[in-house]
């Protein structure tokens, strides 16, 4: 099993490139960045976890941060955890994904999702009621752009006819697409248009049962990576037993001393699991 970390790339903490160099030097396999273009001040959608931390509205742009991380490293996999595709134009997003993957030499992993903040979606012109259908069409449309010289797509929410867009991703036909979330229909989306599932660990082991369900339903190899994994060797043991490809732990946003302290705790858990 591989190991990685997640990070909110805020302007008042370690820069994306600095974090990337640190975790690559310390032997982590991957670094995934969170995305929020903004947080509506109305705060109508409750934050799933109490009071929302300020890091949610202090992030750099996702693809700017990913480019900095990729440029600062040579081996580290860089990814989105998650890219809020329903809030992005699919043609621009396809270009950004392909650009980061091309510039990084094929080290990008595309975590996608619909998000949970309904007023944030509305600010981008997306009706929350149809967000899952929008997500599916935008991902399918991007696949067409990445894999064809001349791409077209005709759907209910995405339409374009005969476009050229380069560069193409370094990974063929595209970087791994990982669907985030743990909602009741998430496995349907994974099986419909993704290469893998990117759930959060949560407060219990329910995700393990759903990994088994996914394996039973899949007629092709489907990768599972788990975010929000605690620095607990026992949890790592359970994830490894379930066949998880990569476990990832969120690092706090902040100065190097704060980030490094959390990284050392994660490394200690990995070391205990590995030795055990």
TrEMBL record:
Keywords carried by this UniProt record: Flavoprotein, FMN, Monooxygenase, Oxidoreductase
InterPro entries: Lucif-like_OxRdtase_Rv2161c, Luciferase-like_dom, Luciferase-like_sf, SsuD_RutA_monooxygenase
Pfam families recorded: Bac_luciferase (PF00296)
Luciferase-like domain span: 18-235
Parts of the chain that traverse the membrane: none
Gene3D superfamilies xref list: Luciferase-like domain
One of the GO BP terms on file: alkanesulfonate catabolic process
SUPFAM superfamilies (alphabetical): Bacterial luciferase-like
Domain of life per record: Bacteria
GO molecular function: alkanesulfonate monooxygenase activity
The protein, known as: LLM class F420-dependent oxidoreductase
Annotated source species: Catellatospora methionotrophica
């Amino acid at each position: 099993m591989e190991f990685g970390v997640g990070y909110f790339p805020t302007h008042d903490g370690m820069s994306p490139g600095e974090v990337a160099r640190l975790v690559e030097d310390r032997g982590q396999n991957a670094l995934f960045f969170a995305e929020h273009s903004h947080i509506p001040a109305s705060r109508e959608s409750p934050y799933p976890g109490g009071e929302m931390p300020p890091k949610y509205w202090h992030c750099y742009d996702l693809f700017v941060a990913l480019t900095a991380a990729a440029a600062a490293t040579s081996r580290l996999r860089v990814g989105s955890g998650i890219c809020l595709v329903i809030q992005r134009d699919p043609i621009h997003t396809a270009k950004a994904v392909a650009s980061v993957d091309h510039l990084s030499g094929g080290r990008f992993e595309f975590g996608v999702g619909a998000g949970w903040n309904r007023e944030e979606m509305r600010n981008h012109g997306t009706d929350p009621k149809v967000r899952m259908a929008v997500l599916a069409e935008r991902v399918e449309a991007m696949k067409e752009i990445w894999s064809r010289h001349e791409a077209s797509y005709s759907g209910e929410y995405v339409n374009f006819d005969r476009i050229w867009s380069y560069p193409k991703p370094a990974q063929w036909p595209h970087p791994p697409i990982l669907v985030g979330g743990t909602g009741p229909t998430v496995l349907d989306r994974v099986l419909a248009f993704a290469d893998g599932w990117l759930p959060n660990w949560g407060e219990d082991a329910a995700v393990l049962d759903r990994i088994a369900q996914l394996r039973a339903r899949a007629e092709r190899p489907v990768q599972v990576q788990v975010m929000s994994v605690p620095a607990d060797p026992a949890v790592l043991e359970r994830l490894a037993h379930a066949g998880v490809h990569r476990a990832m732990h969120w690092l706090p946003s902040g100065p190097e001393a704060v980030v490094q302290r959390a990284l050392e705790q994660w490394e200690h858990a990995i070391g205990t699991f590995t030795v055990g």
